[in-house]
Amino acid sequence: MCELLGMECNVPTDIVFSFSALSLRGGLRGPHGDGWGLALYEGKAARVFLEPAAAARSPLARFVRDNPIKTLLAVAHVRKKTRGNTSLANTHPFVRELWGRQWVFAHNGTVKDARRRPLGRFTPVGDTDSEHAFCALLDGLERRFPAYPRRRTELWRAVAELGGEIGRGGTFNFLLGDGAHLFARCATRLCYIIRKAPFKRATLADEDLAVDFAEVTTPRDRVAVVATAPLTRDEAWVVGEPGTLWVFDGGACRATLPSR
Amino acid sequence: MCELLGMECNVPTDIVFSFSALSLRGGLRGPHGDGWGLALYEGKAARVFLEPAAAARSPLARFVRDNPIKTLLAVAHVRKKTRGNTSLANTHPFVRELWGRQWVFAHNGTVKDARRRPLGRFTPVGDTDSEHAFCALLDGLERRFPAYPRRRTELWRAVAELGGEIGRGGTFNFLLGDGAHLFARCATRLCYIIRKAPFKRATLADEDLAVDFAEVTTPRDRVAVVATAPLTRDEAWVVGEPGTLWVFDGGACRATLPSR
Q1: Do B111 and B129 meet the contact criterion of CB atoms below 8 Å apart?
Q2: Distance of residue B117 Cα from the nearest chain A Cα, in angstroms
Q3: Ranges assigned E (strand) in chain B
Q4: Residue A52 with chain B: CB contacts under 8 Å
Q5: Best CA proximity match to A177, nearest among A23, A45, A66
Q6: What is the four-CA torsion angle of A130, B121, B76, A177, rounded to 10 degrees?
Q7: How confident is the model at residue A17 (pLDDT cuts 50, 70, 90)?
Q8: A103: three-class secondary structure by DSSP
Q9: CA distance A130 to A136
Q10: Percent above pLDDT 90 for chain B
Q11: Per the CB < 8 Å rule, is B47 touching A50?
């Protein structure tokens, strides 16, 4: 199993506080020592840091913590391999271009049946069921729409339906970014929190690191954080219901859709 | 104009010595202060570092220099913008998946006419003529072959022909990696060197940094380095003839093909 972390905001925000928690679970506090990845959007493009080695001891993960990059949308993953070798090609998040924007995907769980799904024009580079499922998901979107849908809610519903369809073959918790939204599907475990005014102090669940968000924010800031398990011990996280998809935009959860 | 750097080897090699030369040209010694990028292959996948800011003063470029990652195939670029804004989406090298492998592309020059070319399934994320040309090149390859060609020389010829065709619309010096080869097209300026036994000392053209390659290699190592201009002042670089494509594999130049 792996751990997912997503962030979606209305003002550029750095993900260092949450990423610190996640990367410590990658090999030091948790069993997720088989690689990690972090995608940070700038408009429709994403900067992606990948390392097929434990995040807790990674110089690159330390660099990311020491040199915060602000973003409106981020997707991160630490991996405990269940399928596929530890290699760069098997390291989440995966990236593909569709309709002139980069799509970023990270998965927690196993969807063995994904491999039986016919592939369209997107072909896995590595040998994980996760990347296969991502390719199938994008293929499904491309079959439904000739271009990025103007009616956003049509896109949201399509992601929910395709997530449900592919997810029938296993455990399909995922985060998907398209540069505009963060989609988060809960199959078994996923939770989120919206940080907004009045901001408070928060303490990481796994260590004594605390941040007083009131000191680093303005009253209009809104930040949605999604994770496999709560990252802080003094905030109230919303726990996902299995078979649902959350859609985040502007630092708010815009929709909770059935995804079965 | 921009500067290109490629490396292709028969044993995993770090690109730090050459990348140091390139990144110093990125904003400190040269006029290329609008961003830089470096792609390092591991099998069919590439790890890509991108920064839409000067390489010479970039903490990420320093990280790459301080934490060498060995690879068989690398493509790097420092940018002086001619078209398009300075943004992540406009930062080379560009990456797309085709036939289950990542293709990496960096361009030097301007091919305004590239924008008139119809696009297939690959769509630019940014607004450079370079990315448009790359999308057209991959589309051309996909139209010719249903999968990665078994006969490698057919692929080589196709890249040369498509490079010539797209290059008619401007100046099309490029580096293209597919995880197995480094393709290097010379439109106006490109040169290469093969480092092999007996290895010698080499000194960077722009500063006093020198490396004695005999100390860091074995007699069987072969390393091809391609660059816009010679990076060292005490080695004999092969200067490209305009309208040709070099194909590197195993640290050797396997073919010099017409590309007009």
Answers
A1: yes
A2: 16
A3: 3-13, 36-42, 45-51, 71-78, 94-98, 101-108, 173-177, 182-186, 191-196, 201-203, 210-212, 222-227, 238-239, 244-249, 252-258
A4: 42
A5: A45
A6: -40
A7: confident
A8: strand
A9: 10
A10: 68
A11: yes
Task: Let me know: does B256 contact B245? Beta carbons within 8 Å.
Answer: yes
Nearest to A37 by CA among A47, A11, A191: A47
DSSP per residue, B139-152 = HHHHHH-SSS-SSH
pLDDT value for A21: 80
Task: Quick: pLDDT tens for A174-207.
Answer: 999 999 999 999 999 999 999 999 998 999 887 7
Clarify whether B186 is annotated catalytic.
no
Which of B44, B92, B97 to substitute to test the interface with A, most A CBs within 10 Å?
B97
H helix runs in chain B, sequence order: 16-25, 59-66, 129-144, 152-167
The total number of structural domains that make up chain B = 1
HSE (CB half, 13 Å, CA atoms) of B214?
Answer: 4
CATH code for position B102: 3.60.20.10
| ipTM value | 0.93
What distances in angstroms separate CA B68 from CA A54, A139, A174, B17, B129, one per listed residue? Answer: 17, 37, 32, 10, 32
**Parent domain of A253:** 3-258
Two structure tokens written together for A100: 């002139």
**pTM: predicted TM-score of the whole model, two decimal places:** 0.94
- Asked whether the beta carbons of residue A88 and residue B42 sit closer than 8 angstroms, the reply is yes
pLDDT for the residue numbered B76: 95
